[in-house]
Amino acid sequence: MKSKEAFLKYENQLTHNLQEHPDVLGLTFVGSAADHSRVDEWSDHDFFVITVEGKGESLRQDLSWLPNHAQIAFRPRETAHGLKVVYQDGHVLEFAVFNDSELELASANDYLVTVDKINNIEQRMKQIATSSAVKVKEAKYDPEAAYELLLCQLLIGVGRARRGEGLIASEHIRSWAVSALVGLIRFWESPAQESVHLTDNLNALRRFERQYPAYGLAIEQAQASTTEACAKAILEILVNSNHLSQKQKDQADVVSNRLGWH
Fold first, then answer.
1. Per-residue DSSP letters for the chain?
2. For the whole model, what pTM was predicted?
3. Which of 106, 158, 219, 249 falls between 20 and 30 A from 10, CA-CA?
4. What are the residue ranges spanned by the domains of the chain?
5. Per-residue pLDDT of the chain in tens (262 residues, 90 and over written 9)
């Protein structure tokens, strides 16, 4: 998908195809496919298809309802309801097909309903988006435990790197510790005002660099270094954030001392 025009043309064709499909009750685009202000050349088409009860699996198996289906390069099954599809030109789809009774299993934020043959998909998607936001807000987040677990990831990850277990060490540091760091930053600080509307309440890593540019750059630079250097940089970001209590600074010293970083 090279242009916004092509992106929207695909959505219109998919909408037409499913409006005509006898087993389909609804279609709703989600993510940037619903908020067209965010569309760029790397945007995927994310959507949910709602089918007549019992017809969901047949649409997951037979993708002839997709536009340009003869150009599909590969189509891995991801979950019980979801697939990814990649076309020959690299265009990516991420979608789920739900029987009518299964739609409420979904989570969503932005959505755009373009097919609603039973006149309740719009209302149900609104409730799903509201419920998804409430679940995020009500999820208990313990910043002290998150911080201490992050320190554990650094200590364990560097230990494994020094032992020669580079792959698992990288996962501890570049994945788990970075995700924990991003969560703490979001808890401590509000994003740049002009980027608040970009928040994705389903994935804390999405658009983080635009919302927290200084932190985003520091983390990106850390991840470009060796695993141990990345871990050390993460700890420095924490210590220099001005959000740590004296107790937490002392805990950071335990990690630094054990790893000989002082």
1. --SHHHHHHHHHHHHHHHHH-TTEEEEEEEGGGT-GGG--TT--EEEEEEESTT-HHHHHH--TTSTTGGGEEE--B-SSSEEEEEETT--EEEEEEEEGGGGGG---SSEEEEEETTS-HHHHHHHHHHHHHHHHHHS---HHHHHHHHHHHHHHHHHHHHHT-HHHHHIIIIIIIHHHHHHHHHHHSPPPGGGGGG--TT-TTTTHHHHSHHHHHHHHHHHTS-HHHHHHHHHHHHHTTS---HHHHHHHHHHHHHHT--
2. 0.70
3. 106
4. 4-138, 143-259
5. 568 899 999 999 999 999 999 999 999 999 888 888 888 888 889 999 999 999 999 999 999 999 999 999 999 998 999 999 999 998 999 999 999 999 999 988 889 999 999 999 999 999 998 887 776 665 677 899 899 999 989 999 999 999 999 999 999 999 999 999 999 999 999 887 655 555 555 567 788 998 999 999 999 999 999 999 999 999 999 999 999 999 999 999 999 999 999 7
